[in-house]
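Lab channel / #folding
Pinned by the channel admin:
"Please post every new chain as: sequence first, then the structure tokens as a reply. Keep commentary short and put observations after the output so the thread stays searchable."

First post following the new format, from NK:
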Amino acid sequence: MTERITDRIEIVNADCYTLLDAWPSDAALVTDPPYGIAYQHSGGGRCGRGLEGAHRFKKKHSPKTCRIRGDEHPFDPSPFLRFAVVCLWGADKYRLRLPETGTLLAWDKDCGKGPEGSFCDCEYAWTSTKTQRNIFRHYWRGLCCSKQGEGLDNPNQFRRLHVSQKPIALMEWTLKTCGIRDGLVIDPFMGSGSLGVACHRAGLQYLGVEIDPEHYATAKARLQRETAQGLLFMPNK
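Reply from TO:
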């Protein structure tokens, strides 16, 4: 199923691997793929193996309980490396399978607010672009996460829409840091659509693909709500 939210935003409910060969190599590919967390650990000691075992009795999605399709297998980044610009989040989980060239970006989720003496909670992205090593600081821990950039009329109504949801501010920073100012941005693992919102605000063309129908519906509603608000200007019109 393919739907156009605007003339610049298209979303698809499908397995991205079935569409990969049709995408133009001069596009930018930015995404947060499933990278085998359920495969790597036992899901915090709950029943069963990994997230699959921990949540096998949950029939409905929620940010705390849903499984991510494909997360039971290690992620192979090689099919996604042929694009003009590539940025893959969660790169610390599969760094050995990435090229030695490129740059690592760091997202500091803790911002020094954790227990004294503790290590900061960081997530890393690998990008094919040559850029100075950068750290983005944006507090994103549980109910106390920063609402900045989420576009909420009432910040108190904020809730997580996806188990691995990324803040819109982080996606906006990613686009700028990777030098993506025009053209098509492809997101093979759309999730809740944070990158799509960031692309809309930047006036970029966006193609988001999500295999899970419930997450797809969430992203669709979120993008429809965001685009209905309009923009004062389109930077890349």
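NK: The beta strands are 2-4, 9-13, 28-31, 85-89, 103-108, 122-127, 135-137, 184-187, 205-210.
TO: also worth noting, The chain has five helices and nine strands.
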